[in-house]
Give the backbone structure.
Amino acid sequence: MPGGKARGLVVFAAMAGSVLGVVLQLQQSALWNWAAYAGLVAGALAGWFVQHALRSPVRGFLPMALLLGAIGGAGLAGLRATAYADGALSPALEGQDVQVVGVVAQMPQRGEGMVRFTFEVESAEPPNVPRRISLGWYAEGSGPWGRAGAVDAPGPVHAGERWRMTVRLRAPHGNLNPHGFDQELRLWEQGVQATGYVRTGARDPRPERVAVTWTHPVERLREAVRDAVLERVTDPRPAGVIAALVTGDQNAIDSLIKLSSQLSMLHSPTDKSWAGLQPRNWA
């Protein structure tokens, strides 16, 4: 086994190989069984120890380090993918009433007549619900077919609270436009494996706050700061800007983007800044 600078080259080759292995694994059209990926990882580790025991010269060990890194990277990526796929929402549960108990894991995002939050499921009936889901709680009459006029706000949900509620779920989906925001990818990055809404009909059990926990203290602090800003700043536009800058509140950021779009309409169409905003043909 080489030493000094040569050892650094070997480590670099192994890291480069691991990246290559991940890229190759991502090209698979279908996942293998988890045991196959575990075998790749075990084979890479065994090969590394054999090469270490044989004390191979640097020139011969660099290609082997690249190969072993690729095998190990592909195996680890495959194991992660199979574990994630095993936690996905069962198609049989889509559109069905499911009673869940869990904790609000992030600062809720509030909108007009609705609140959306990430929910960490602790138990569910029927079982086999993903661990992390995204839920919307809509006020009565706030939907597209709701009654006109004022609507009641949804329940006061806060980060760290444990709730029992009836929900309807579906697998994560989102619109994807050319060069646009990929909502489904964002949910995947956050580990969210189902989206849905809280059932609040006349025949549904009322959502119940079970307890206030001390989990997710950072999210509780962010929410407290956000709410304090919105309470003390009377004008909602600068309040949203301040909340977005201080806490990263996504809903406030969306409001800021809308405000920027409105202000940009005040520019003259002949302004040079509009030169690159020509409509595109996506055909």
